[in-house]
Amino acid sequence: MTSTKMPSIVHTGAEIRQLIHSAQLSGKRVGVVPTMGALHAGHLSLIDAAREQCDLVVATIFVNPTQFAPGEDFERYPRNLEADAAKLASCGCDIVFAPAVDEMYPQGYGTSIDVGAVSRPLEGERRPTHFAGVATVVLKLFQLVPANRAYFGHKDYQQTLVVRQMVRDLNVPIDIVVCPTVRETDGLAMSSRNAYLSPDERKRATALHDSMQLAAQLASTGERSVAKLTAAMEQHLNEVGGFVLDYIAFVRQDTVELVDEVTGPTVILIAAHLGQTRLIDNLVIG
């Protein structure tokens, strides 16, 4: 922890862009951490990584309406800018960019980014408008906060691929840094949505990580069949109970290409509903 000074809070695109340009003109390397707020230790680990590599660290806090489908949790998504700013102060964040919806999407707004094949399967199949909303808001944030580096967590594996594809395809001059998933001591991946879990659901939720660890253990002892590894994961989740599975997928690392056998670096992806809460996680094996 490097500082307890409260970060400056900026609400307009014009002001944040000017601050970034001024910092870069003076030779500073700028890092940005895009978030939707409701910050936890996973987010703060991204701030720590940016702090180590950059001279000025900006966190964006914006609950982006275009990445939520009708009936999802946009309205109830936790929002507490004051609490988030205090957490950011504890790890040395310099500036918070917290725009209003009409700052990001002014009246008459009509443009959307389609990132193509990487956004179609898995999360894209279950939430068809989600990645267009993600790509669009991230590109807008990179325009308003034209940092040198942007930091994302590996927990949102497919999102990191979408962002990298968008940056590459549209020649956005920013380096994307993906940092490891941060977990609770019992293995549950940290997520703002964990706050929705009841105490009983919170205990059960660790089964997601446990099931992936089981598959990793089986793979390490020679089991290559994805069908058999998936069956073992499903059996474990059924024994714990309470899960409605969206998918278990095994993909070649750095892609969304499904594999039938674990023959090299492979990412297990899992998404499931537990009560009213949808949880995702992933683990690299092989």
Verbal overview:
With 286 residues, this protein is of the alpha/beta class. The chain has two domains: 8-179, 3-Layer(aba) Sandwich (Rossmann fold); 192-281, 2-Layer Sandwich (Pantoate--beta-alanine Ligase, Chain: A,domain 2). Helices cover 38% and strands 20% of the residues. The protein contains nine helices and nine strands. It has helices at residues 13-25, 41-53, 81-90, 101-104, 123-126, 130-144, 157-169, 199-220, 226-240, and strands at residues 8-10, 30-35, 56-61, 95-97, 149-153, 175-179, 243-252, 266-274, 277-285. The strands form two sheets. It has a six-stranded parallel sheet, sandwiched between helices. A three-stranded antiparallel sheet has the order 7-8-9, with helices on one face. Strand 2 (30-35), helix 2 and strand 3 form a beta-alpha-beta unit. Helix 6 crosses helix 7 and helix 8 packs antiparallel against helix 9 (226-240). The longest helix has 22 residues, at 199-220. It starts with 7 loop residues before the first strand and ends with a strand. 38% of the residues are buried.
